[in-house]
Amino acid sequence: MGFTQSIVLASCSFILGMVFVCQVVDIPLLYMPVTEQALQNAYDFYEMWWEAPGAVKALFHVALALPMLALIFKLNRWTESAMFFDGSGVVMHLATIVLYLTVHIQSLRTFPERTEAVRVLAAANALVGLLTLGVIGMQVGQEYARRVEEREQREVDRAAVVQEGKKDI
Length: 169
Fold this sequence. Notes:
GO terms for molecular function: unfolded protein binding. By secondary structure, this protein is an all-alpha fold. The chain has helices at 3-30, 36-50, 54-75, 80-109, 114-168. The chain is elongated, with a radius of gyration of 22 Å.
């Protein structure tokens, strides 16, 4: 596993951890009958994030930007593996960033319409989690494919050496 792949996995794992933290307030909004207490809990939770210090927001923005930069850098090699695995990762992570910019920030700004805003935000968190799992899955799949390809190449090379040895006799 390379350095850029490690950056992608670490940053996506951080984002996934953030999504799992948010599930504490999202699950009652998405999968249970909505109560006033669930809405108030979600409102308080997301208001805390909205009013967080700039360093917290900057850390999250860096965690969003790093995987995209690393995936684009990996895509620069332009191999079949890069086109499929890293290209798919770029598309999924771009969708994550678009969701963040269009849904998360807008929902946090429109908190006067609380019920709809926090439910849309909770649904977007679920989608971000799925997309982030997809990016992680693509990176794991790329590493698995690379190892299988190396193993098969060693077997082909070994068979060629054995075949060449038989010709010499």
